[in-house]
Amino acid sequence: MIHSFNPPARTLMGPGPADVHPRVLAALARPTIGHLDPAFVAMMDELKTLLRGAFRTDNALTMPVSAPGSAGMEICFVNLVEPGDTVVVCINGVFGSRMKENVERAGATAVMVEGTWGRAVDPEQVERTLAAHPEARILAFVHAETSTGACSDAQALAEIARRHDCLTICDAVTSLGGSPLEVDAWGLDAVYSGSQKCLSCTPGLAPVTFSERALDKVRARTTKVNSWFLDLNLIMGYWSGEQKRSYHHTAPVNALYALHESLVMLAEEGIEQAWARHAHHHQALRAGLEALGLELIVPEAERLPQLNAVAVPAGIDEAEVRTRLLARYNLELGAGLGSLAGKVWRIGLMGYSSRPENILLCLGALGTELGALGHQTDTGAALAAARAVLGTD
């Protein structure tokens, strides 16, 4: 007989989802009300305001898509890209490749800027590509590449795009709430993210924001959007306006309670303070990893604080280490993807997972298990190095 599912209590330090804050879990359990209930509609308006603060934008169309971050990506591409368009796509990891797939499925031509995995997108390479393709009208890139831990200069890329009369589509799934992201100040046009990473919320929602320039292109389309559910012309009627909504779909009511609570917590902490927390905890983790003799693959100036790609030492089976950590410590780390499969661990410090106790648990467990597998380590030195940065020694 199948019984109720009771999941084990894990510490999530992989590429996502991250640990969900207890306040967010409690919000999920609040009474469900109708998705057109006046009280719920008022909460939706607050959600939009809170998301604008997280994105640092005044964009009127800023909302959560009722689906995961991948749907956030797709809503940008299916609405902004038409058959026959040319889109320049920057690829420096797995998620840039997914952008290319979206462009091609929309019947458009993707021109690739191929970068190195583990490095930021090269602005000069983008400049040359756009100069060689004056017909391009969109530049797509990943701000925070989750597969490698590399952070690209979104401000520089957006400035290049504007000079070439291009809109930007930006993947901020791993950066929103965890590292500086300035939608308005940087001139970004369509940005999408996910609820399950630095926002400390559950998976399943995709915050997005669209500039007026982007919406002008949507309104000027000569072809139908190739998705009914993700058609902004329909969704705008559901999320636009104050205290009134046209029916589009049944919103995930309790999941939106959770996102609202997570954004309230982010506002209480302060967005800049949240960025600083992630950066500080990254420095502590880095100090401990280096004391264990481990290396981060991304150069420091291009490194995400909340997603750390760590080179696996020679002779170590990375999957066995992850298996041991999960079985013995209830600690989840991430594996490498694509060309980095088997070569790195991805250690997340996102949202509620970005806490001193998690850093010390990770370093202690990793040092112990690497030592057991024959890799020379000094776990005590690693913990001392991290505590020195954290100020808890």
From TrEMBL:
Key words, A-Z: Aminotransferase, Pyridoxal phosphate, Transferase
Instruction: Write one Gene Ontology MF term.
Output: L-serine-pyruvate transaminase activity
| Alphabetical list of SUPFAM superfamilies matching this protein | PLP-dependent transferases (SSF53383)
Domain Aminotransferase class V intervals: 72-339
Tell me the residue numbers annotated for binding substrate.
346
- Keyword Protein biosynthesis listed? The answer is no
Is Disulfide bond there in the keyword field?
A: no
Q: What are the BP-aspect GO terms?
A: glycine biosynthetic process, by transamination of glyoxylate
Residues with PTM N6-(pyridoxal phosphate)lysine = 197
Q: Which PROSITE patterns match?
A: AA_TRANSFER_CLASS_5 (PS00595)
Q: Which cofactors does this protein require?
A: pyridoxal 5'-phosphate
InterPro entries, A to Z:
Aminotrans_V_dom, Aminotrans_V_PyrdxlP_BS, PyrdxlP-dep_Trfase, PyrdxlP-dep_Trfase_major, PyrdxlP-dep_Trfase_small, SP_NH2Trfase/AEP_transaminase
Describe the family membership recorded for this protein in Swiss-Prot or TrEMBL. Answer: Belongs to the class-V pyridoxal-phosphate-dependent aminotransferase family.
> Which PANTHER family does the record match to this protein?
ALANINE--GLYOXYLATE AMINOTRANSFERASE (PTHR21152:SF40), AMINOTRANSFERASE CLASS V (PTHR21152)
Q: What is this protein called?
A: Alanine--glyoxylate aminotransferase
Q: Which organism is it from?
A: Marichromatium purpuratum 984
